Amino acid sequence: MTVKELENMVRDLQRQVKTLQEQTTILQDIEEIKKLQRAYGYYLENWMTDEVADLFSDSPETVLLVHAGEFRGKDGVRRFFRPRTANKGRRMPEFFHQVMQLSPIIDVAPDGKTARGRWYGFGANASPVKDCVFQGWMDGVYENEYIKENGKWKILKLGWYMYFFAPYFKGWVAPERQCDKNFQHQPPDLARDGASPDTFYPSSFICPFHFNHPVTDRPTPVNV
User: Which residue among 1, 33, 50, 141 is least crowded, i.e. fewest CB within 10 A of its CB?
Assistant: First the structure.
């Protein structure tokens, strides 16, 4: 092999390494954005005001777009997600707002500083209203923008486009097409030793988080 051939080989390897580094960075960015958005879903379930707000950018261009309208800036986000608490600062036991963050498609800008993402949102919720509780199903699409600030991805613009918000029992299927179908669970391979934790609504149980907050890096409280 001549010196020129060796130089050409080295240049080819350098180009390949550069391409692989760029691809690895994009994949890492996508995974970080996925974690950011999924954390939003878990915090949203329990209406954790501070944890949700800290996922958003400090930029004055920050926007939360929901059916009611636009909430601008981080203060606007915090205003929309104002605490819904009972006595002693705990979340209302009957409150439940689970919206699963599903099927993401994420595109990172060539400069690696911004990104856009589209997600499905589907879930069930229960909202105490005076002396009763409204329960329902909800479904929609998120179309979001993200920005990297000081090496961390944050939400810049969150757009929630709701497709339906249906009463739990009535659902979204026409009454004449609805039916009930029950099924039996299979027995477990290993029964629990002692009583199962009370995780069912309206216990106000929050499953402990194994991860720290994606932006603040603080442990997530479960007694809220």
Answer: 1
Q: Answer whether residue 49 is part of any domain.
A: yes
Residues 6+ apart with CB under 8 A from 49: 78, 81, 82, 83
Q: What is the pLDDT of residues 14-31, one digit of tens each?
A: 999 888 898 999 999 999
3-state helix, strand, coil in the chain (%, to 5): 30, 35, 40
DSSP letters for 63-100: EEEETTEEEEHHHHHHHHT---B-GGGPBPTT-EEEEE
In a domain, 183, yes or no: no
- Identify whether the C-beta of residue 129 lies closer than 8 Å to the C-beta of residue 153: no
For the chain, the domain total comes to 1
What letter would DSSP give residue 151?
A: T
Q: Is the dihedral of CA 54, 57, 58, 64 positive or negative?
A: negative
Q: What is the pLDDT of residue 116?
A: 94
